[in-house]
Write a structure and sequence with these properties.
Layout: E1 5-8, H1 12-24, E2 29-32, H2 35-44, E3 49-53, E4 55-56, E5 59-60, H3 61-71, E6 77-81, H4 86-94, E7 99-102, H5 107-119, H6 145-156, E8 164-167, H7 174-183, E9 192-196, H8 202-210, H9 227-230, E10 235-239, H10 246-258, E11 260-262, E12 269-271, E13 275-280, H11 284-289, H12 295-301, E14 304-307, H13 318-333, E15 339-340, H14 342-349, H15 356-370, E16 375-376, H16 393-407, H17 413-432, H18 437-444, H19 448-457
Parallel strand pairs: 1-2, 1-3, 3-6, 6-7, 8-13, 8-14, 9-10, 10-13, 15-16
Antiparallel strand pairs: 4-5, 11-12
Bound molecules: adenosine-5'-triphosphate.
């Protein structure tokens, strides 16, 4: 048995680069340009590690991965591929890849992965066949390193039941990531139930989560199952967890450790067989330090963290996302699919996207409905809301107001001003939309949940 690393890559120059880097790092390397050569060689000797491309002239690297899993269960396999979508990441991990590396990659990262693969040989006998990830519903799209890291985490967790905390600004795709985690988990066959702590009045949240018995409180005319019960055998997604009242956090923590709970007004314990995924747009660590969030619950939920950066920090995702969301908008509306011109895509990359992917989705819906031709060029894009200008009339008046308030010795000026500003804009938006919250939120550039929470807290 040799200690060589076997490299299967049909792109000659990339193969050469990897060979050089591996040799330089002191590894013995054997390179192959197709699968046939590897299959043959595997009958004769065994490598220390396999590095394989996916698309090869005589087949698919994932097929090889599967074969090797059967014949050489302890052999670490690193999959490298230019096809960098979530599905590929999940398939690679499901078939037992030790790691998955999207191209183009940093050669140092590649070498570091090789070292890790060699030092921690895997037992990969617990992979479960072809749990195909044919998830229906919207697909996650993203090419940026940040989104690739998200895909890898989802793939790596595909056989796990761990809690995950998903953080990111409103509209960055937290719920979509939660769904992808569920769809690519052993619980995929079970329900996915989402609860938004910000959207439910605090006094109702407990019975919403845990259900209630008949007569538990005034108005509880019948027994009602809670979200925990509905999510039995599946996943419970707790959105805006930072908004959960502290008393309920305590209860949630107990359920997580005891794996059972009581309905409100109930005396029979109910088994809780759910995986918890949580999300927040807030800085939970800060909430903890300020005493608004229980530290122990924070640690319990924060086992694995997926951080989704705002769209403006991953503008390289915009072209593919825009194409994808345009196609989705066409499907939703039943209208003919549009295409962005190169100029339009360039213009889109330059926007601020304070509403993140949701804002881009809304823009795609709008141009699908509004544009006349099939091509959407830069001029056909709805105007970006002008950034607040310094010389705006209302800002000058705001300064006067602040002056006057300070003169009266009032404090917390920004707190009051921001609250008043938000109240005014919410009233305006609800007027505009005739009370329709979804539309009002869209006007404001907020998520519907954000609007609901703010309306509640006003
Ligand atoms: N990477 C992505 N690929 C494709 N679609 C995306 C992606 N990210 C977000 N979306 C779409 O953007 C919209 C907003 O995403 P989502 O509701 O998951 O955001 P969120 O972070 O949960 O927002 P909020 O915090 O306001 O609830 C959805 O329509 C979602 O399908």
């Amino acid at each position: 048995m040799t200690q060589a690393i076997w490299l299967i890559e049909d792109d000659r120059s990339l193969r050469w680069v990897m060979e050089q880097a591996l040799a330089e790092a002191g590894h013995e390397v054997r390179a192959f340009a197709d699968l046939a050569g590897v299959r043959q060689a595997l009958h004769e000797e065994q490598p220390a590690m396999l590095v394989s491309d996916v698309r090869l002239p005589d087949g698919d690297g994932l097929t090889l991965l599967e074969e090797v899993a059967g014949s050489h269960p302890r052999l670490p396999v690193l999959i490298i591929t230019a096809q960098t979508d979530l599905d590929m990441a999940v398939r690679a991990y499901e078939r037992g890849a030790f790691e998955y590396l999207p191209k183009p990659f940093d050669i140092d990262e590649f070498i570091a992965l090789i070292q890790r693969g060699l030092s921690a040989p895997q037992t990969v006998s617990d992979r479960d066949g072809d749990a195909s990830s044919g998830a229906a519903g919207p697909r996650l799209v993203g090419e940026s390193p940040a989104m690739q890291a998200v895909f890898r985490t989802i793939g790596r967790l595909s056989r796990s039941e761990m809690s995950v905390l998903i953080t990111g600004e409103s509209g960055t795709g937290k719920e979509l990531v939660a769904r992808a985690l569920h769809d690519n988990s052993p619980r995929a066959g079970g329900p996915f139930v989402a609860v938004n702590s910000a959207a439910i009045p605090p006094e109702l949240l407990e019975s919403e989560l845990f259900g209630h018995e008949r007569g538990a409180f005034t108005g509880a005319v019948a027994r009602r199952s809670g979200r925990f019960e509905q999510a039995h055998g599946g996943t419970l997604f707790l959105d805006e967890i930072g908004d959960m009242p502290v008393a309920l956090q305590t209860r949630l923590l107990r359920v997580l450790s005891e794996r059972e709970y009581y309905r409100v007004g109930g005396h029979e314990p109910v088994q809780a067989d759910v995986r918890i995924l949580a999300a927040t747009h807030q800085d939970l660590a800060r909430q903890v330090s300020e005493g608004h969030f229980r530290e122990d619950l924070y640690h319990r939920l924060n086992v694995i963290r997926i951080q989704i950066p705002p769209l403006r920090e991953r503008t390289e995702d915009i072209p593919r996302l825009a194409e994808h969301l345009l196609a989705r908008a066409a499907e939703e509306t039943g209208l003919a699919p549009r295409r962005f011109t190169a100029g339009a895509l360039k213009a889109l990359r330059q926007r601020r996207w304070s509403g993140n992917v949701r804002e881009l989705m809304n823009l795609c819906r709008r141009v699908t409905v509004m544009s006349s031709g099939s091509r959407v060029d830069a001029r056909a894009l709805p105007e970006e809301e002008a950034p607040f200008s310094q010389d705006g009339d209302w800002l000058a008046r705001l300064r006067e107001w602040a002056d006057a308030a300070a003169g009266r010795g009032e404090g917390d000026i920004a707190v009051h001003a921001v609250a008043a500003l938000e109240r005014t804009l919410m009233d305006w938006a609800l007027d505009q939309s005739q009370g329709h919250r979804q539309d009002a939120a869209r006007l404001l550039g907020w998520g519907r949940n954000t609007l609901t929470r703010k309306l509640r807290d006003r």
